């Protein structure tokens, strides 16, 4: 670097060169670019400058991909004429940076707590001209009435979802829309967080409308799976297959209400493309929401799905009035069967995934604080009190005000796989929970499996 001592703004004396700086020797700039490429996962590197060595850094092997000549300080015709683009203003440069448009598909408790974080991030990023996110975020709402009016209208007026996440401000830059197609149209980053039983219909609708951008990226926050004749299909696989786009997942010990209150929580983003993982991390990470990146989509997603069955089992145990030792044995056996199921379905699932927030931490959070646990506890208490007619469907309606239980459905889906493959004996806890749900064995069998 040239170093000047300035007096009243005028350069008066050359002090010397920093001889270690890559820009002070031949081929230094291409070398610096090569170093940047090694350090970061960028696909394209753009060189911006006004000197001939800046322009030459594009021509060197491993150098930048394109050259923008900046004429805001000095205009050099020989450099400008060899540039890919010539600008005189910094604002022109900033305007051409890609800004991702974000859409959320879902508007339940977790969808709202998650989109609240996203809207915080995009609003904050908008303060910088170099932000890569559009500040406005759209959210698809499965329409219903609230106090005699459309929930969507209420959310847009009050910036709050009073049905699914009361008391949490979602942000003025969050725009609710009851039209799924219009919500997703033109989005670059699509977040899926609808209950898993609705995800196939949602994907089919989006595919039929041909509304998803070819280069769009998706992330699924949905915990659940679909069972087909050939076996299980994870939601991320469904999104990728039906919509033809990359799909990461965000999974963890994430009770929606606690995160909306900004209590410290952790999650993992599991990715197939690291670039996508880094981008999603930028969008979701908040001072109270720490994210680890993980290259294990099936492991993280199956953990998030299967722990809902374990939470139903833990709730049954609570309903029976068991103490901490017995409850811990349900959690331990549950985690062990989760791991076994993951390995049977996808042998490449990593062991360390089970020690991440999506593994043991989500088992603990859900088995102590989740909806599956709470409803299963009530169901068990009613059964033990002699009410043989009470069903999970009834209690879901009675206790959850429109929120959806995932554990009971998931238990049926997993059981279908265990039966089809003759694996029931290897999964005594999962199988017993399913039999208790269907009244084939009494609730206290949970302690004898
Ligand atoms: N609530 C939580 O704390 C967490 C939930 N999750 C997962 O996130 C996913 C979504 O759950 P939440 O956001 O909590 O939702 P929720 O269970 O709070 O709400 C249900 C949502 O489904 C919508 N809905 C009802 N009928 C529908 C239909 N026919 N088609 C489409 N949508 C319909 C409702 O309008 C509502 O938005 C689930 O897979 C859940 O396991 C994951 C982490 C935490
Ligand atoms: O997934 C969850 C926490 O991580 C929420 O679980 P519940 O659906 O049981 O509340």
TrEMBL record:
Domain named Glycerol-3-phosphate dehydrogenase NAD-dependent C-terminal: residues: 296-447
Enzyme class at the top of the EC tree: oxidoreductase
Gene3D superfamilies: HAD superfamily/HAD-like, N-(1-d-carboxylethyl)-l-norvaline Dehydrogenase, domain 2, NAD(P)-binding Rossmann-like Domain
InterPro entries: 6-PGluconate_DH-like_C_sf, 6PGD_dom2, G3P_DH_NAD-dep, G3P_DH_NAD-dep_C, G3P_DH_NAD-dep_euk, G3P_DH_NAD-dep_N, HAD-like_sf, HAD_sf
One Gene Ontology term of the molecular function aspect: glycerol-3-phosphate dehydrogenase (NAD+) activity
Keyword NAD included in the entry's annotation: yes
E.C. no: 1.1.1.8
Pfam families: NAD_Gly3P_dh_C, NAD_Gly3P_dh_N
All copies of domain Glycerol-3-phosphate dehydrogenase NAD-dependent N-terminal, residue ranges: 101-274
GO cellular component terms listed in the entry, alphabetical order: cytosol
Keyword terms, alphabetized: NAD, Oxidoreductase
Catalytic activity: sn-glycerol 3-phosphate + NAD(+) = dihydroxyacetone phosphate + NADH + H(+)
Family membership: Belongs to the NAD-dependent glycerol-3-phosphate dehydrogenase family.
Name the UniProt record assigns to this protein: Glycerol-3-phosphate dehydrogenase [NAD(+)]
